[in-house]
Design goal:
The chain is mainly beta. The chain folds into 2 domains: about 110 residues, Immunoglobulin-like (Sandwich), CATH 2.60.40; about 110 residues, Immunoglobulin-like. It is built from 2 helices and 18 strands. Strands 1, 4, 5, 8 and 9 form a 5-stranded mixed sheet that branches. The longest helix has 18 residues. The radius of gyration is 23 Å and the shape is globular. About 30% of the residues are buried. It holds the Pfam family DUF4397. This is DUF4397 domain-containing protein. Keywords: Signal.
Length: about 250
């Protein structure tokens, strides 16, 4: 290749590098997004599947794969959360939450309830739809994730049982009480527990109120550095939607 052509290619390369700049640095692109972290739970036993909007933008069930026609967003149903694992990012500041009953083949999407909260950059929050017909509520809980000891796993219990019995629910792992009791519409603090090796036998998790115990299906494998929430929901004394304990992985 002659000197003239080499000079042209060198100059072109320099122009491309200059044009890209820091905005196109792949390391910058892979950096975590700024904003608040949100996890949304459906804990209203008699409500159909719902969608959550944050500041009028769809938050839950977002389809990230291009399609034509674009399908309806996947609703969050009772006993489930969005995202299933981890959190999703929203802008920090004032947040208007709108929960809407998901559209079906025969009915358009319709409003269920709404609420407001202020969320801070870099902090974590759980947002719950709770209650029953005529008394739906939106509960926002700040998830204070202790990060002091990454060699431990962390667990907590959230009590969303309507007409919850006095005393609330505490959490037991393998028969050992690990959290304080959580009253209705509250969460215990995350508490450190000893982790297990990957693939170890699941440990039994029970939400307990006096002599009444609710066992979380599947148990828990508390891995080091992970955070787990046991959500207790349902209606106390109701045989159709009785209180049930469900394990959720925060991080």
């Amino acid at each position: 290749m002659n000197t003239f052509v080499k000079s042209i290619l060198t100059a072109a390369t320099m122009l491309v590098v200059a044009a890209c700049g820091s905005e196109h640095d792949p390391l910058t692109s892979l950096a975590p997004q700024s904003g608040a972290r949100i996890k949304f739970y459906h804990a209203a036993p008699d409500a159909a599947g719902v969608n959550l909007y944050v500041n009028d933008k769809l938050f839950s069930g977002v389809n990230t794969v291009p399609a034509n026609p674009q399908p309806l967003p996947t609703p969050v149903t009772y006993f489930t959360s969005y995202p299933v694992l981890d959190y999703a990012v929203v802008g920090a500041g004032a947040a208007k939450f709108s929960v809407k009953l998901a559209a079906t083949a025969s009915a358009a999407e319709s409003a269920l309830l709404s609420g407001d909260a202020t969320v801070e950059d870099g902090k974590y929050y759980s947002v719950f739809t709770i209650g029953t017909t005529g008394g739906y509520e939106l509960l926002t809980v700040a998830d204070n994730l202790p990060g002091t000891d990454k060699s431990k796993a962390y667990v907590r219990v959230v009590n969303l049982v309507k007409d919850s019995p006095a005393g609330g629910y505490e959490l037991l792992v393998n028969g050992k009480s690990v959290t304080t009791a959580a009253a209705y519409k509250s969460a215990s603090a995350f508490v450190a527990v000893d982790p297990v090796a990957y693939g170890a036998t699941a440990q039994t998790v029970v939400a307990k109120n006096g002599a009444a115990s609710l066992t979380a299906t599947g148990g828990i494998q508390p891995y080091a550095g992970r955070y787990y929430t046991v959500v207790v929901r349902g209606v106390f004394g109701n045989t159709k939607t009785p209180p049930t304990a469900t394990l959720s992985v925060n991080l």
